[in-house]
């Protein structure tokens, strides 16, 4: 089955929403393959967000991701990459649909960084790359 990398970002962990995110993933029938709470390093985040290097939100994004612990997950299931992004909702919680993690639980921006609770890989290539970065032993 397909695998994806999911992160509960520092806002999600800080607001006590880790369990709620896990609940939605498991309720959908996906399987947790790996789970680890950790403080992300600059080096890891620079690699994770390499595609955003040079964008105006890059610096604030990396800083935000280091503002507290994150919970990293590898999740497995049929078409889980698209499926988790559908559970998460669109990037901006302001407009994310009700029923999604960001739509139900995400706060509207109002800040320079999008604090949108979760990350999910966006393609099979990204998933393989990101799982290798966060869980090199897998
Ligand atoms: P993710 O990759 O985290 O699942 P995404 O694919 O919806 O989210 P990307 O476009 O890959 O979003 O951007 C990565 C992250 O950078 C976003 O989740 C958000 O936290 C932040 N971000 C994206 N666009 C902006 C923006 N215009 N202003 C501020 N922050 C942004």
Automatic annotation (TrEMBL):
Entry GO MF terms:
ATP binding; metal ion binding; nucleoside diphosphate kinase activity
Give a Gene Ontology cellular component term annotated to this protein: cytoplasm
* Reactions catalysed according to its record: a ribonucleoside 5'-diphosphate + ATP = a ribonucleoside 5'-triphosphate + ADP; a 2'-deoxyribonucleoside 5'-diphosphate + ATP = a 2'-deoxyribonucleoside 5'-triphosphate + ADP
E.C. code:
2.7.4.6
Q: Could you name the active-site residues?
A: 119
Quote the gene name from the UniProt entry: ndk
Q: Write the record's keywords in alphabetical order, separated by commas.
A: ATP-binding, Cytoplasm, Kinase, Magnesium, Metal-binding, Nucleotide metabolism, Nucleotide-binding, Phosphoprotein, Transferase
Summarize where ATP binds, as residue positions.
9, 57, 85, 91, 102, 116
Q: Which CDD domains match?
A: NDPk_I
- Start and end residues of each Nucleoside diphosphate kinase-like domain: 1-138
> From what organism does this protein derive?
Flavimobilis marinus
This protein's name: Nucleoside diphosphate kinase
Q: Which cofactor does it need?
A: Mg(2+)
Pfam families associated with the record: NDK
Q: Subunit notes for this chain?
A: Homotetramer.
Localization per record: Cytoplasm
The entry assigns this protein to a family as follows: Belongs to the NDK family.
Cite the Gene3D superfamilies for this sequence: Nucleoside diphosphate kinase-like domain
- Summarize the protein's role: Major role in the synthesis of nucleoside triphosphates other than ATP. The ATP gamma phosphate is transferred to the NDP beta phosphate via a ping-pong mechanism, using a phosphorylated active-site intermediate.
Q: Which GO terms describe its biological process?
A: CTP biosynthetic process; GTP biosynthetic process; UTP biosynthetic process
The keyword Transferase belongs to this UniProt entry's keyword annotation: yes
Q: What is the lineage of its organism?
A: Bacteria, Bacillati, Actinomycetota, Actinomycetes, Micrococcales
């Amino acid at each position: 089955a397909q695998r994806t990398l999911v992160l509960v970002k520092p806002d999600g962990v800080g607001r006590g929403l880790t369990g709620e995110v896990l609940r939605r993933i498991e309720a959908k029938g996906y399987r947790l393959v790996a789970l680890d709470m950790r403080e992300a390093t600059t080096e890891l985040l620079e690699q994770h967000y390499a595609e955003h290097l040079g964008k105006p939100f890059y610096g604030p994004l990396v800083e935000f991701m280091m503002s507290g612990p994150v919970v990293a997950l590898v999740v497995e299931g049929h078409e889980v990459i698209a499926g988790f992004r559908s559970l998460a909702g669109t990037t901006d919680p302001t407009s994310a649909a009700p029923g999604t993690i960001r739509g139900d639980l995400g706060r509207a921006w109002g800040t320079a960084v999008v604090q949108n609770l979760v990350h999910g890989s966006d393609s099979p290539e990204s998933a393989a790359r990101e799982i290798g970065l966060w869980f090199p032993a897998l």
